[in-house]
Design goal:
Layout (H helix, E strand, L loop, with lengths): L1 H31 L28 E6 L7 E4 L5 E2 L7 E2 L5 H12 L8 E7 L7 E6 L5 E4 L6 H7 L12 E7 L2 E7 L1 H6 L14 E4 L5
Protein name: Polysaccharide biosynthesis/export family protein
InterPro entries: PEP-CTERM_polysacc_export, Poly_export, Poly_export_N, Soluble_ligand-bd
Keywords: Signal
Length: 218
């Protein structure tokens, strides 16, 4: 009986020492890991918000129609690197351009094979560049990235994400915006806007804005 108790005591002590060693090693490892560089601020490619035009992004589905040449027309997806390849045109930059700009570039490239080509580019699946998306994270009902739309406001964004959760501290929310190449934080009163109907707390949203909604401390 004493031998069993002694053996059990040794096993318990060994287990405790092993666990302590693992905690110590984990702590030392995490403290010694180098820090990654901060994310590079990506300013919006939209130069004039009053003349907003949709910009193509990776993942967009484009219907490219070449007049009089159905055999080289079709639907194509912009690659993750922002490039586009069609029947006769390889690796043409598409991301960050308007459909009209892209159509002009395709016409210039097709002129080598087709006489006086006329191209139409129609966006079927809207994704857009990351720099133009509005992202909502934290205590929203449906945190997500949203394609910016002309004249979009904070209220429009919150309707798209389903409003606040029951645990949200809406009046401590923050909006992150890139201004002159630097990220700046602005306060938002989402609680007043959504729960009290204070429409004066509605603000304009710009392409690339990030909205962070923290959890309330009860």
């Amino acid at each position: 009986m004493d031998a069993d108790m002694t053996r059990s005591g040794h096993l318990l002590k060994l287990t405790c020492l092993t666990a302590a060693a693992m905690v110590l090693v984990t702590g030392c490892t995490s403290n010694s890991l180098p820090s990654l560089p901060k994310a590079t601020p990506q300013p919006s490619l939209t130069k004039n918000i009053n003349q907003y035009k949709y910009l193509i992004g990776p993942g967009d589905t484009l219907n490219i129609f070449v007049w009089g040449n159905p055999e080289i027309s079709g639907a194509y997806i912009v690659r993750p690197d922002g490039m586009l390849t069609t029947s006769l045109v390889d690796d043409i930059p598409a991301s960050g351009r308007t459909p009209t700009e892209l159509a002009g570039s395709i016409e210039a490239r097709l002129a080598e094979y087709v006489r006086d080509p006329i191209v139409s580019v129609i966006v079927q699946g809207f994704v857009g560049p990351y720099s133009e998306q509005v992202r909502v994270i934290g205590e929203a009902q449906q945190p997500m990235a949203i394609n910016y739309r002309e004249n979009m406001t904070l209220l429009d964004v919150m309707v798209a994400v389903g409003g606040l959760t029951d645990f949200a501290d809406g009046n401590d929310a923050r909006l992150i915006r890139v201004v002159n190449g630097q990220q700046r934080a602005y306060g938002l009163n989402l609680g007043n806007l959504l729960r009290d109907g204070e429409i004066g707390d509605n603000v304009d949203i710009l392409p690339g804005d990030i909205i962070i909604i923290p959890e309330a401390w009860f």
